Amino acid sequence: MTADDGIRVLGIEGTAWAASAAVYDSTTGSVDVETEAYVPESGGLHPREAAEHMATHLPTVVETVLERTRGERGSPAGDDGEEPDDSAAIDAVAFSRGPGLGPCLRLAGTSARALAQRLDVPLVGVNHMVAHLEVGRHFSGFEDPVCLNASGANAHVLGYRDGRYRVLGETMDTGVGNAIDKFTRHVGWSHPGGPKVERAAREGAYVDLPYVVKGMDFSFSGIMSAAKQSYDNGTPVEDVCCGLQETIFAMLTEVSERALSLSGSTELVLGGGVGQNDRLREMLASMCDQRGADFFAPEARFLRDNAGMIAVLGAKMYAAGETLPV
Ligand code: AMP
Ligand code: MG
Fold it and tell me: Which of 247, 304, 306, 309 to mutate to test the pocket of ligand 1 (most atoms within 8 A of CB)?
């Protein structure tokens, strides 16, 4: 039995593009997630549009997961016109407190506060980045892993020991997903660019691009500019995509390997939306295989932004008494 046994937490994610709600039940281990994605019509994520998306969709995704837990409990309430009573079903409300786009964070925070008040349960403020890492550690069952967080706006390598994460290496400029997305915006592809680069790279031949690892840190802004230039100079876009993936992912793999070596850990966990890329997972798995380490990547729905990871970390924080006044 773990400290968070018997807890049901409703999680709300609202840092950028995902208006998402989830219910995590620590007894069964089930995580029920509902997400509405904001896809910009052109360009990258626009903070005001993203916030409008949150305002429209957070109430509906929350209602959807609550409705499903009512169904599970066999109490499809509300038919007689009365407010359904969910207060017995949920022990705490957790929300993504940051980092993220300010206008989105305000909406996620306000929704979570209102809901905690309505259900009369404690409120838990979750760090979105730690949630990306913790959900992988949770499903992997690893004790002291090295964690690679390959997200849109971030890229870090961390070591987990004695209940704490320590940053071992990180990007010196842009996040890894943002770098890829800026290149795809330059060639006129819609957001998000990552999946399109992955598809195009399969048809391409490798081209050299700048490889920048300094100690435990990496940099993506130079490679992004070089990729744009190479495309402008007539290199087929598939070839640039192939070079971009091979170079960026090799950098992440090198630093992850160095972190395993430095820390003596034999476990690697992947997190973040870029982790949905097959080639990245293949490189990391092969590096781990060669050094006899275990590699774990959660399902894709827990790699990209999602409220399941907020609910899972929220349950651990709630069990540890880390709640906020509404
Ligand atoms: P996150 O912020 O963790 O939700 O991750 C979002 C980022 O993941 C965006 O920058 C996407 O372009 C990127 N992404 C999504 N799918 C893929 C993929 N298959 N390959 C590379 N990047 C991806
Ligand atoms: Mg994220």
Answer: 304
Residue nearest to atom 5 of ligand 1 (CA): 273
Asked if pLDDT for residue 43 goes beyond 90, the answer is no
**What is the pTM (predicted TM-score) of this model?**
0.92
Q: CA-to-CA distance for 133 and 198, rounded, in angstroms?
A: 23
- What is the spatial distance between Cα 58 and Cα 121, in angstroms, rounded to a whole number? 19
Tens of pLDDT, residue by residue over 254-274, are 999 999 999 999 999 999 999
Q: What is the pLDDT of residues 207-222, one digit of tens each?
A: 999 999 999 999 999 9
The ligand that comes nearest to the alpha carbon of residue 177 is: 1
At 293, is the secondary structure helix, strand, or coil?
Answer: coil
Q: Are 303 and 131 in contact (CB under 8 A)?
A: no
Distance CA 214, CA 274 (A): 21
* Size (the chain), residues: 326
Task: Give dist(CA 105, CA 49) in Å, integer.
Answer: 13
Mean pLDDT of the chain: 94
Cβ of 152 closer than 6 Å to ligand 1, yes or no, is yes
The DSSP string of 75-140 is --TTTTSSPP--TTT-SEEEEEEESS-HHHHHHHHHHHHHHHHHHT--EEEEEHHHHHHHHHHHHH
Cβ–Cβ < 8 Å for 296, 79: no
